[in-house]
Amino acid sequence: MRIKTLIHAAIVAACPAAGVAMTLEFPVNSVRVLDETETLGSYQLPLGGWEDDQIDALTAEGEVIRQVWRIPSTNLTTLQILGPLREQLIEDGYEVVFECKDWDCGGFDFRYGIDVAPEPQMHVDLGNYRFLSARMEGDDKDEVLSLLVSRRSDTAFVQVTIVGPSGAPRPNLTPSTKTQPTISPAGLSFDPTGNGLGVMLESEGYVVLDDLTFAIGSSTLSDGTYPSLAALADYLKTNPNRNVTLVGHTDAEGSLPGNVALSKRRATSVMDRLVDTYGISRSQVSAEGMGYLSPRASNLTDNGRNQNRRVEVILTPAE
Fold first, then answer.
1. Angle value at C-alpha 12, between 7 and 17, nearest 5 degrees
2. What SS3 class is residue 4?
3. Domain spanning 196-316: which superfamily?
4. At residue 209, what are phi and psi to the nearest 5 degrees?
5. Per-residue pLDDT tens for 76-135?
6. What is the pLDDT of residue 19?
7. Ramachandran assignment for 228, one of left (phi > 0), alpha (psi -120 to 50 degrees), beta (any other)
8. What are the boundaries of each domain within the chain?
9. Could you tell me the fold of the domain covering 2-175?
10. How far apart (Å, rounded) are the C-alpha atoms in residues 289 and 265?
């Protein structure tokens, strides 16, 4: 990790830090599941994504506050959660210094290169998370802050980390008292008769192809017609400058190497169907496997394991 340093005064003897505490409102049904404060600690604030086997970071020292908020039974996307929080930070005087989304951040490497609270308090889907770093400068109040937002099928998670001078007013982090607007789910379903897949792929960066089936123990896509593949093929033909990666996922039964290999073979089978049946250019599609490293539900139940066995399509940069 490439490190820069920002040191906050740990103790202000004669004149403690003054000012109005920041207020950050989370979605209305949010529940705080973790609240930790370290009077004098340090935090490495990412200033960029994973690059050259490291993360460009700034070391902030002072009082470190870390909270995790869980938003149950929500259909809000990670962007719909992060967006309002970003606006509140800017209104409070913060400057956003870095922001990224899962694969643009560096995927697996970025997530495991930053400080993340453990499960079950904080859950990070490697293919569906967003990260933001912000900084506020002042004569008597220098603060840095980060937000990590992710979700699984029925729950969203937000981790906020704040570093500021000891003695400064504690930030007011609270659920909103406003009514949350109703927003249709994204990333889980779409209308295959229209351009729903394309719209979701452009806005969210990924779509779960929930209608695909594989024979038990097989890595070959079963015969049949799949609306999701027809919609994806239409999108790729209409947008020849777009590239996608098909990512296979498994449940947690069996070894990690075996599951990674199986998930990649299944993704490759879907890619072959797109090329052979729908005439999609191989230059637009690639295949990868994550095994069980990115669950969207618990592997302790049959229903959860069924949800975790899936193939997703992710929008990737054109080479």
1. 85
2. strand
3. OmpA-like domain (3.30.1330.60)
4. -90, 80
5. 788 888 989 999 999 888 999 999 999 899 999 999 999 999 988 899 988 889 999 999
6. 44
7. alpha
8. 2-175, 196-316
9. Protein Transport Mog1p; Chain A (3.40.1000)
10. 8
